[in-house]
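Q: My hope is that you can spare some time for a protein that puzzles me. Underneath my words sits a plain record pairing an amino acid chain with its backbone structure tokens. Those tokens are not coordinates but codes from a learned vocabulary of shapes. Thank you; the sequence and its tokens follow:
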Amino acid sequence: MITNKIQLEVALHQLNRFHEMLEAMRVHLKEQNSSLFPTVAEGYLVRIRELEKEIVEYTYFLLGESATPIGVIETKAAEPSLDIR
């Protein structure tokens, strides 16, 4: 759970790194064995979703959105594609 702006910066950096790692894995597996990508990507996608949820929750907290209590927010961010093309 993000509780301050430093943790937010770290979470944003981690989110960016996970997206970069996922893309690198997609490119690598495209050349090696593309059928493995959905399986390998699963862990990355789980962590990406967790980070996105924490970032959204903290952002709502900063904005003082009492109508959206922390811990109840469900992100509906676009799912990264598992298409290896």
